[in-house]
Amino acid sequence: MNVQKLQIENTSTEVTRFNALRHGILSRYTVLPWENENEYLTLAEALVNEHNPQGPTEEHLVEELAGILWRKQRLRLAEAAAHQQGLENAAQPFRDTAKAALVHLNVAAQKDWVSDSVRATPEQTIDDIRDLHEDEAMTVNALKILDEGKKQSYEKAVAALRADSRKWWEETLEPVQEGFDEDGTPTAQSVDGLRRFIKKELLPWYEQRRKELENRHLIRAQAFGQSLDPNKLAGLARYEVHLDRKLEKMLSMLFRLKELGRKVDEG
Fold first, then answer.
1. How far is the C-alpha of 167 from the C-alpha of 162, rounded, in Å?
2. Residue 134 · residue 248 · CB < 8 Å
3. How many domains is the chain built from?
4. Could you tell me if 65 and 123 lie in one domain?
5. Is the pTM above the cut of 0.70?
6. Pairwise CA distance, residues 245 & 7, whole Å
7. Can you give the residue range of the structural domain that contains 71?
8. What tens digit of pLDDT does each residue of 95-143 get?
9. Which residues are 186's β-sheet partners?
10. Which residues lie closer than 8 Å to 201 by C-beta, 6 or more apart?
11. Exposed (0-12), middle (13-18) or buried (19+): which is 216, by Cβ within 10 Å?
């Protein structure tokens, strides 16, 4: 019965000790309004269990430890946010990120290549390459049908195009185009008109798309490299050094205090 009473008292003491830390002067200002207070309390409770603070001074030091570790976690978020902001900046058209990535190659990089290169996974790029090959093969087949000049070759060639390529062709025939290409060449639902569209629009697009897909890894590396802001990272690094020194100081003070307590108990 006495053992059970002692266990209850010990449990009550641990809860009271954690409550004192949870409602301490520092704790109430450590967690920002948008942060998860339960995560902080879990961290604080783990530190209480690890260091078993005795008295308000040790509780204060453990509370300091919780705040330091919490700020170090916040620092990681700040570092990630700095990278994200830098990456957004690198994706802006005026940054010419794709051009810089391919400056050593004879490739006319397009400004809109950066976003896809950053977002696409290797698996997605493989799928995009496969899709490009299929699309191009269908267009080449349509061009072959036109060149053979058989009956209803125009209709068959249009049907041979992939749906999105066919839609593109149909959009060039809309009334708003007034029946002319950009260079003034009449467009028409004819063998010659479709052949000209394929050679002038579709085939060059495939070539550009192929260059984009083949060089995504270079553009991606360039964008992530440009996302690093040395000035911001230097400031975060200095703050981390400050936190590490403070952490070391608090631990040293806590250990010395406990050692003094043990000596007093032994004496």
1. 9
2. no
3. 2
4. no
5. no
6. 38
7. 2-90+228-266
8. 889 999 998 888 888 888 999 999 999 999 999 999 999 999 999 999 9
9. 180
10. 168, 172
11. buried
